[in-house]
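Job type: complex structure
Entries:
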Amino acid sequence: MVTNHTEHRLAIVGAGVMGTNITTLAVGFGVPVVLVDLNEEVLSRARKTITQKLRHAQLMGALPQDRPQGELVTSLSMTDVADATTVIEAVVEIPEAKAKVLAEASALVRPGTTLISNTSCISVDEMAAWVERGDELVGVHFMNPSYMIKMVEVIRGSGTSDATMESVNGLLAALGREALVIKDSTGFVINRLLHPLINTAAMLVQEGVASVEVVDGLLEGCLGHSTGPLRTGDLIGLDNLVDSLNVLYERRHDESCRPCELLLSKVREGDLGRKTGRGFYDYGKVAT
Amino acid sequence: MTTDQASGLAPVAADEIAAALLGFLADRIKTEVAPDQDLFKSGLVSSMFAMQLVVYLEETYDIAIIGPELKLDNFRTVEAMTALVLRLRAAEDAA
């Protein structure tokens, strides 16, 4: 197991909320990163966001003091993933988008390169059909903010090899993360529990049963949640949440996962949560 | 060089900084806080909000909070933040 940070070179595809989160974590732990996105404007914003997130991580004492930061390179070209020891896919939770990125990355890297999907809901076995060597694919569900929350959910697909598991465990140790491994299942453990909870919380607000603050206040005050479900939704991004709920609903036919009208209307209005400055809560200005 | 000299930053008093911070906090977290109250321990503010405090102080007082000064203890209380601003502005003037 390679736990020394200097032995890892990461390529991260997708420079959105999670791509920048994972990049911050890796760079902060001394691992070099090539961050790939199709859009220069997105990459330009990502560089600023990562700078701010690195400051946030330092402020919170979340980074090792004894390591120089890893180098960050941003790129518009997928071919730049070719030399990575691990590729992390962090694009939107839309099957076609993930399929395209995973297939391209898999064709570019050397055999033996670990492919990680930071999937929210789409199962690892479904994604394994899209790549050249399905045994090299593993799901890692990093939390947000990735540099603050030590625990990650690791999803072992039915075809994921022992070598891939060893590799991902080494990487996560180098990044100071702790992993709990589960078997494959659409939505996994966290989002099968969390996404219907957030959707139902939004439904309660929509029905006028309680305000946003009261729903979150009850979950925080009575059940000990550190962040209420609606504030968590704002952190995830309500557009991403709706995409994930759609994946869960289409595959599991669970009515509690059909995105409720209040969520859909917020997405239509562009109130996507923290990243746009407003979702269920008003954050004053765009949070980085 | 002292903070009074024209070549440096315009002087700002500790009580002005504290009053502005208390106003900022009251506006953003909808709660009145005491100058010596630990904002994080009391659960009033999240770790995400801590970064907003950093940006607010940097933009309002024209300072850069970097290196060893970028630590949570400097933001725990209004008093600690006020001291940080005065310290960094004095360092800026002395430079």
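Summary: The longest strand of chain A covers residues 151-156. Chain A touches chain B through 15 residues (CB under 8 Å).
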